[in-house]
Amino acid sequence: MWDVVGKDKWKINNSMDRQYEPRPANAIVEDAKALVGKELRYDLVSFNCEHFVTKLRYGVAESPQVELAELFVMGGVRILAQAIRDTVAHRN
């Protein structure tokens, strides 16, 4: 691992262990090795690095960061829509 991270900061993120059962370490390593040299699609919203590692660790590709961002965006849209409705209603 040190060969990869060098002197950069890193952390082990097991935050989804209560939601999903982690796969056996040997299965994770085997799947990761099988992907070495392969080109994988990347999409910030649907398949980013967090999706990649949760797919390996839990067998489910999820990104809590993306899900949280989507909640903030939807909240902002609702606030904006309400502000527009209030403005239109006030003019009438």
TrEMBL record:
GO function terms (MF aspect): N-acyltransferase activity; phospholipase A1 activity; phospholipase A2 activity
Family: Belongs to the H-rev107 family.
Organism per entry: Pundamilia nyererei
Entry's Gene Ontology BP terms: N-acylphosphatidylethanolamine metabolic process
Protein name: HRAS-like suppressor 3
Signal peptide feature range: none
One term under GO cellular component: cytoplasm
Domain LRAT: 1-65
Keyword field: Hydrolase, Lipid metabolism, Transferase
